[in-house]
């Protein structure tokens, strides 16, 4: 039997306990929980069949009562003695995409980001469009290209506009977007709505998201229907799903919403989140976005997603949109950091605007934990491979 050492200050203490899907040489992917620098095999310890599967979906589908029960059992387990064969060092396992992604929607919930992009992309008009403060604007992304951290990202090819008309080729303005992703566990039937008060009954947990974005492809294709191929080539997520319960100490009131929102978007509980992110480009931190300034809360986003009667499904992923704070060093996309490429930055020994082949980007995040310390999210990392031409 083994007791897992939890060093003082660990971001993965007993107040976090995120879930993921891992494999070891010789055994297939299955559900594990991270405790400090170890992964606990849940099928081998708790014995419940849904943990022997290569995704979290069957567990997530069972709903809040079951999630809370398992979290209590896992906390007891992690604090006590565990059979040696059920504990693996994080460094010795392979992490997989933690859930089968059903639908994927990306929102646009940062006022700072939306304003910055408006100024950069549409300099002669109002940066925020008239609907922006009345509803959380979003678009449907491509769930089949959601990949787990560590997956390489091939530079996309596509159309971009030039003075001589559109040309086809590798994107020359490849960018990132640092976001949070909310993972739906318990779905809702077609024809029903999820109210803002029901958010925690449906959302299982949170991942970090990098919504890779080819700005040149996007700028040419997006009017009037929104982003499509400029973003659908890859979206990276972290391997560990932080349970919503672990974020209790991170809950804060969001910004005051003025004008007042329509009643289906009104909230009685605070679902702003005090989460600090860091974006590293080739190993150097270039930005520290803050989640707490996000205008729309995740409870409002889910209420909006279902207000027309659209069903929510186990494995649905909806992302917050780029997380940009008010400060210059809090911007969550390189198009903002470099102001449309006009203000290059010196990063890791190079002057840069957009991503070059071989570049690597890592997004990390921490939040206040229940024990007075901090909890971590697993990183989301990706490296750019040259285009297939
Ligand atoms: O303002 C635009 O035209 C485009 C905005 C984005 O690309 C952002 C997007 O994907 C939503 C977000 O991440 O906030
Ligand atoms: Ca985005
Ligand atoms: Mg801690």
From TrEMBL:
Associated pathway: Amino-acid degradation; L-phenylalanine degradation; acetoacetate and fumarate from L-phenylalanine: step 6/6
InterPro entries from the UniProt entry: Fumarylacetoacetase, Fumarylacetoacetase-like_C, Fumarylacetoacetase_C_sf, Fumarylacetoacetase_N, Fumarylacetoacetase_N_sf
Keyword field: Calcium, Hydrolase, Magnesium, Metal-binding, Phenylalanine catabolism, Tyrosine catabolism
Cofactor(s) demanded: Ca(2+); Mg(2+)
E.C. code: 3.7.1.2
The Fumarylacetoacetase N-terminal domain, residue ranges: 16-98
Pfam families: FAA_hydrolase, FAA_hydrolase_N
Residue ranges annotated for the Fumarylacetoacetase-like C-terminal domain, each copy included: 106-375
Domain of life of the source: Bacteria
Protein name: fumarylacetoacetase
Organism: Prauserella alba
């Amino acid at each position: 039997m083994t007791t897992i050492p939890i060093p003082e200050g660990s971001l993965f203490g007993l107040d976090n306990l995120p879930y993921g899907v891992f494999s070891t040489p010789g055994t297939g992917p299955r559900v594990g929980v991270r405790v400090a620098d170890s992964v606990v095999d849940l099928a081998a310890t708790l014995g419940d069949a849904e943990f022997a599967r290569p995704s979290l979906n069957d567990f997530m589908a069972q709903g809040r009562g079951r999630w809370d029960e398992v979290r209590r059992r896992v906390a007891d387990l992690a604090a006590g003695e565990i059979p040696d064969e059920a504990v693996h060092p994080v460094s010795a396992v392979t992490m997989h995409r933690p859930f089968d992604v059903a639908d994927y929607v990306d929102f646009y919930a940062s006022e700072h980001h939306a304003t910055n992009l408006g100024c950069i992309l549409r300099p002669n008009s109002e940066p925020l469009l008239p609907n922006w403060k009345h509803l959380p604007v979003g678009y449907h992304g491509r769930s089949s290209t959601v990949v787990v951290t560590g997956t390489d990202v091939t530079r996309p090819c596509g159309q971009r506009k030039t003075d001589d008309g559109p040309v086809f080729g590798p994107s020359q303005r490849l960018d990132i977007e640092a976001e949070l992703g909310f993972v739906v566990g318990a779905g809702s039937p077609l024809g029903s709505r999820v109210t803002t008060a029901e958010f925690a009954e449906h959302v299982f947990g949170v991942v970090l998201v990098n919504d890779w974005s080819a700005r040149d492809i996007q700028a040419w294709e997006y009017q009037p229907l929104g982003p499509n191929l400029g973003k659908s080539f890859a979206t990276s997520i972290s391997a560990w799903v932080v349970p919503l319960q672990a974020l209790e100490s991170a809950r804060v009131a969001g910004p005051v919403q003025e004008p007042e929102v329509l009643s289906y978007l009104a909230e009685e509980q605070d679902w702003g989140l005090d989460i600090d992110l860091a974006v590293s480009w080739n190993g150097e931190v270039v930005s520290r976005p803050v989640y707490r300034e996000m205008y729309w809360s995740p409870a409002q986003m889910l209420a909006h997603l279902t207000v027309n009667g659209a069903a929510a499904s186990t494995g649905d992923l909806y992302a917050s949109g780029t997380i940009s704070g008010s400060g210059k060093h809090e911007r969550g996309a390189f198009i903002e950091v470099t102001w449309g490429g006009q203000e290059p930055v010196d990063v890791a020994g190079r002057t840069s605007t957009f991503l070059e082949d071989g570049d690597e980007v890592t997004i990390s995040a921490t939040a206040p934990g229940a024990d007075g310390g901090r909890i971590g999210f697993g990183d989301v990392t990706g490296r750019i491979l040259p285009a297939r031409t």
